[in-house]
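ok so dumb question maybe but i'm new to this and my supervisor (M.) told me to 'just get the structure for NADH-quinone oxidoreductase subunit N' and walked off. so i did the thing. is this what she meant?? sequence i used:
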Amino acid sequence: MIGHDVFLPAPLLAVSSGIMVMLAATVWRRSAGRSLACAMVTLLLSLAVVGRHTGGRPENGDSLFIQDRWTTYTAALIIFSTLCILLMSWRDRGHDGTIPVDEYPLLFMLGTLGALAMVFSANYMPFFLGLEILGISITGLATFRHRPVMAGCEAAMKYLILSGVSSAIFLFGTGLAYGVTGSLRFMPPVAAGEMPAALPVAATVMVLAGMFFKLSAVPFHMWLPDVMEGAPVPVAAFVAVVSKIAIFSALVRYFGTGAQPLFLNDIVSVVIILTIMGGNLLALRQTSLTRLMACSSIAHVGYLLIAFLCPGHLQSGAITVYLAAYAASTLGVFATMTAFASPDGPDGTCIAQWRGLFFSRPFLASAMALMLFSLAGIPPGIGFLAKFEVAATGVEHQRDVLLCTLIIGSIIGLYYYLNIIRVMMTAPLLPSRPLKQHARPELAALVIVLTIIVVIGGLFPARAIHPLLPASPALPGLPDGMTH
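this is what came out, is it supposed to look like this??
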């Protein structure tokens, strides 16, 4: 029992300690800038100790948390993504003295804690607690929309209600799994003895449905465009990147710790086809860049699920590369949107506002074009390699229907990604009124860093990605990178 209490991944301990310090500092005296600085210092410390832990795991392996190269990698991605998102929020929230906003970075940190708890979970209990902490944090963050205020409240209410329904489904599946196995270990239940075979199937389907909602896979996708459009741009980035990485990491962990059910292939294959086609077709109709990125995020979940469904020698590399490519490219788009926004001008959330950007602000336009190329799977961005490796996993398993869906979805995606670049290259109809440019060195540095990551990852994938791959499997039947 002592082993259960002692073993704790260091990032969870560091983030929890930082949150308590932030709470104590807020009680002492409110300061938005200090809260943001404390959050960033905490995340940097967490990133430094991301591969460490306290104590030792019990010999029987029955613990609340697990730590290996897979959890270390995905936790590092989550912490790095939150750092980038806090940098996007620094100027607006840290220098707005009209309202106390200490809660803004605090909610980001709580959401990060929930995401990390999901990544490191080896038990249903910490996973569900992390899931709820992340969901409540996103609900609070969505309300920090100043223009218009009601948009943020509407986004928060939609997410709160639908997230509650999905959590209830997931919790009911967890209860069924416990009834079948008598254990809360984070793995698909397997019927033993005279237990009806339908019970573990129902439990697995309910758990999978709860995860698919958080991933916004079709048909559980309807909330994502509305929530991301109603939330501030940094919060939309948090929903699109951090929550997706956490859930997908847990999904790989859940079905990688035991034999996959036979019915899983058919269910996930249908979800993949609907998700890729649905996300891309929805994106074609969007005039809001935020909603377009939400629909794009839905499609990218479908691409990732192809690699998830095809275990083998190529699976580990495909998943690892795609997570890095998706995180860097999506954060780059939202960072460019934040840098483009002006207090007395456009906020960058409408595609039409980007007209003629190559003429007025070529640096931002070039960075945005590179990120869109990467998301579309066009060289030299890292997204090209990511889609290639996902396609390779489908070829290895001869998933012809899924490969055709990937190709058709990618062709559709080319239209709406390149359309944004076309808008930026179109000369404005009338000379635009010059807007006062506010110095934002942190955003410029962030855009440059993300651009370098996207380019270096695309040009030198072996050096940029392969040292970060999860460990090889130690047990037969587990996907690459899934070890205990």
